[in-house]
């Protein structure tokens, strides 16, 4: 006989418990969220409208920006709204939906970053075959595979969580619903589920990270035979990718490649990869990429010219 599911809603303890700091946090995270949406939207519009950014790399970059925008939107609006709410509640169904979307979009980004590393590997290590390998069909299929992989991962995480009995308490010491905080509230032994979560989430993050590191090492080794100009351009692009990989995968591995325990640093680490990283990605890719900056200038000049006419 299955235990009765008594919990119909969860209470989120939130990010900031100091009432004096809550208005400051509200303004800070509102500005971060607006900058994230506008920054990623700018990249999407620039890539879509620029005739100079038609290579597969920018095709993947536009999808990464879309994923980042979605990823931030899953957690940031609820976090922002809760700063002025004394009782921060979320329904059981809403909590499970949020958990599903966080893992769906987050895992999709993991696979997309891996795909982008593969694209750079082909472009730098096999330049003569690049256009024949990275066709439009292949690029579209890789993006679709990233979404499907993220969906499968998230379904597994959600099913592992939703089948657990929740009889109370219902207070989640976090600002959004995630697997580890929910496992602590289940009215049963969650050791096996915790192990499966580590295998599912942690190993995906670790394996993809190792694959990314190996691919960029191979790229760096192959650059030794290139001209100084070709080496400089390739290094500039790869450095941007490596920076994004490190700031995204580091917190993920810290959060999910460990037993279902909580640390005082968890909330800040989670803020970094759910809210800060989606903002940093467009900054990193635009500030270190002359082609994107030039395309933005031309797009902006064209809009101004059309506006004057």
Automatic annotation (TrEMBL):
Pfam families: 7tm_4
Membrane topology: Multi-pass membrane protein
Transmembrane segments: 20-45, 57-76, 96-118, 130-156, 191-223, 235-257, 269-287
InterPro entries: GPCR_Rhodpsn, GPCR_Rhodpsn_7TM, Olfact_rcpt, Olfactory_Receptors
Keywords: Cell membrane, G-protein coupled receptor, Membrane, Olfaction, Receptor, Sensory transduction, Transducer, Transmembrane, Transmembrane helix
Entry's Gene Ontology molecular function annotations: G protein-coupled receptor activity; olfactory receptor activity
Compartments, as annotated in UniProt: Cell membrane; Membrane
Domain named G-protein coupled receptors family 1 profile: residues: 39-285
Domain of life: Eukaryota
Family matches, as SUPFAM superfamilies: Family A G protein-coupled receptor-like
GO CC entries: plasma membrane
Protein family according to the UniProt entry: Belongs to the G-protein coupled receptor 1 family.
Protein name: Olfactory receptor
């Amino acid at each position: 006989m299955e235990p009765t599911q008594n919990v119909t809603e969860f209470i989120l303890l939130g990010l900031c418990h100091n009432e004096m700091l809550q208005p400051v946090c509200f303004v800070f995270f509102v500005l971060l969220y607006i900058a994230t949406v506008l920054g990623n939207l700018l990249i999407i519009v620039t890539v879509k409208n620029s005739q100079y950014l038609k290579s597969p790399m920018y095709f993947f970059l536009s999808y990464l920006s879309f994923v980042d925008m979605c990823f931030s939107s899953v957690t940031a609006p609820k976090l922002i709204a809760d700063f002025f709410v004394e009782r921060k509640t979320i329904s059981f169904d809403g909590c499970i939906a949020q958990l599903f979307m966080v893992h769906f979009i987050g895992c999709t980004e993991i696979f997309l970053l891996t795909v982008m590393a593969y694209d750079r590997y082909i472009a730098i290590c096999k330049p003569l075959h690049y256009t024949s390998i990275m066709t439009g069909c292949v690029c579209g299929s890789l993006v679709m595979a990233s979404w499907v992989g993220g969906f499968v991962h998230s379904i597994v995480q959600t099913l592992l969580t939703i089948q657990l009995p929740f009889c109370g308490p219902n207070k989640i010491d976090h600002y959004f619903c995630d697997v580890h905080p929910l496992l602590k509230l289940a009215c049963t032994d969650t050791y096996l589920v915790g192990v499966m979560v580590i295998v599912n989430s942690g190993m995906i993050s670790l394996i993809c990270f190792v694959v990314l590191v190996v691919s960029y090492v191979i790229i760096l080794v192959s650059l030794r035979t290139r001209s100084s100009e070709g080496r400089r351009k390739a290094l500039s692009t790869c450095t941007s990718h490596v920076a994004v990989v490190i700031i995204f995968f580091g917190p993920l591995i810290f959060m999910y490649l460990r037993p279902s325990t909580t640390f005082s640093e968890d909330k800040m680490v989670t803020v970094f990869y759910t809210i800060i990283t989606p903002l940093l990605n467009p900054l990193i890719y635009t500030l270190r990429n002359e082609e994107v900056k030039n395309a933005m200038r031309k797009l902006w000049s064209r809009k101004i010219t059309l506006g004057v006419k």
